[in-house]
Amino acid sequence: MRFRPSFQIKLFIYLVVLFVTLFSIVGVYYFHDIERQLYEDMGVRAKVQAEEIALIPSLITAVENKDVSAINRLMRNISAHSDASYMVIGDGKAMHLFHSIYADRVGKALVGDDNVDVLAGKSSTTVRLGGIGLSLRSKAPILNAQGHVIGIVSVGYLTSHINTLTVEKAIRILVAAATLLLALFTFSWFFSRSIKKQMFSLEPREIGLLVRQQKALMESIYEGVIAIDGQSRIAVINQAAKKLLNLDAPSRELRGKPLEEVIAPVSFFDRQVMLEKDIHDEICLFNNLTVVASRVRIMLEDQLQGWVITFRDCSDIDRLSIQLSQVQRYADNLRVMRHEQLNWTATLAGLLHMGRYDEAIRYIEAQSESAQELLDFVSARFCSPRLCGLLLGKYARAREKGVELAFDPACELTHLPPTLSETELMSVIGNLLDNAIEATLLRGENAGPVEVYIVSTHADLVIEVADQGVGIAPERREQIFSLGVTSKREGDHGLGLHLVASYVSHAGGTIEVSDNSPTGSVFSVFIPNGLPVHSTGTTGKA
């Protein structure tokens, strides 16, 4: 298995290589720069010394008289106090009169072939190979009172001496650089370890995989999800949240935006409330959309980093809850019909067991006639078999509770509106019947029947359910269709009429609530059929 260094090791190595490369480049540059600067400084120093020595009157006199002993005494004193590698005095013919190192060269010619300009009265600074080696030297002419060149002063620094000074300076800089490099290596190690710790000891490829997994996970969530930082700026938002909030901008444009620019401010996002506690399943209003929202804090090492907000459309949850409740009602209807059938069968079996065959026949005929009459009416008047089953079940359930369910003879449903599905129609009628039966039961034994009128014309589908129950106060008629509003104390209530209103509104219809005579309420639903009107019909209450 091939060894893969960790991110910390790789980052440390990269930083070390970078620092070493940078210091190497800078070190070479500064070494050559120091060498150049030293040559310039030494050249200027040699020139100044040569020109000043050439102006000494006693030296001019001694050179003019070629007094070697006087020159020797004077120059020995001067060279002893100078840092120059050597000093040389020559006459007007470029012959040695003094040499600070080799005294035996007096009387010999100066070496280096750089005396022409000096004898012409000009100072010069050159790097030449002289009698004691390669050196940087400066030469100045010695002039007499008449301005004639009578000698030469040469002050030189050996290049080996200059190089030694350069190396000494470079070593001092190198020591400082090595110390700095060591400090940088230490910093690199702790820096890479800190980065590794902040990444939860994950490798970059693992972080990349996690990011892709997180993105896929966020988009697979049906609920809307928004993550915000400590300053309430959006960090992450999924497609479901954008869809629920009707946001068309790309996610990258929404990141970094303040939350209040995306969702209108509500108390759910009050910072003081957010800091106090997390909230689960709270009903809120996000941009005119009623949602069930939760808010959870993001903590890292006991420090608040932000919040994750999840929300879903409240109507979806309500619809699912109501549909489940409707299924329970269907099951109850089947149970009622089953019990009624069992009672009917038990009665028939008892009569047969006692040998009362004539009474059994009359009982069968009576039951069959009543049941068949209702069955024939419902199946002939309504085009939906599922709706027929619902109405028969509601009829049996109402009778079991002692409430009469009366169908208007004019009932007729030949087709369904294109904007209302069969399931939605069953939910609308079923909930209206359930509420009417419950209102009738609240009235007591003297309550009249629940009357049903369902007819589909070319223009509208009309549904009217009238009860003679306790009625609805006029001031409450606008509230009864809101979620959770109910007059019942038990059961899964406060959802039915809300769902009815939702379905009817979605289908483009209207609901009217009026008083029944002498008591009770009438619920009238009008849903457009979307068909051309050929004739005008009358509609009435059952």
UniProtKB/TrEMBL annotation:
Pfam families reported for this sequence: HATPase_c, sCache_3_2
Superkingdom, taxonomy of origin: Bacteria
Catalytic reactions on record: ATP + protein L-histidine = ADP + protein N-phospho-L-histidine
CDD domains xrefs: PAS (cd00130)
Class of enzymatic activity (EC top level): transferase
Regions crossing the membrane: 12-32, 170-191
InterPro entries per UniProt: HATPase_C_sf, HATPase_dom, His_kinase_dom, PAS, PAS-like_dom_sf, sCache_3, Sensor-like_sf, Sig_transdc_His_kin-like_C
Ranges where the Histidine kinase domain occurs: 398-531
Subcellular location: Cell membrane
A GO term, aspect molecular function: kinase activity
Annotated protein name in UniProt: histidine kinase
Originating organism: Rahnella laticis
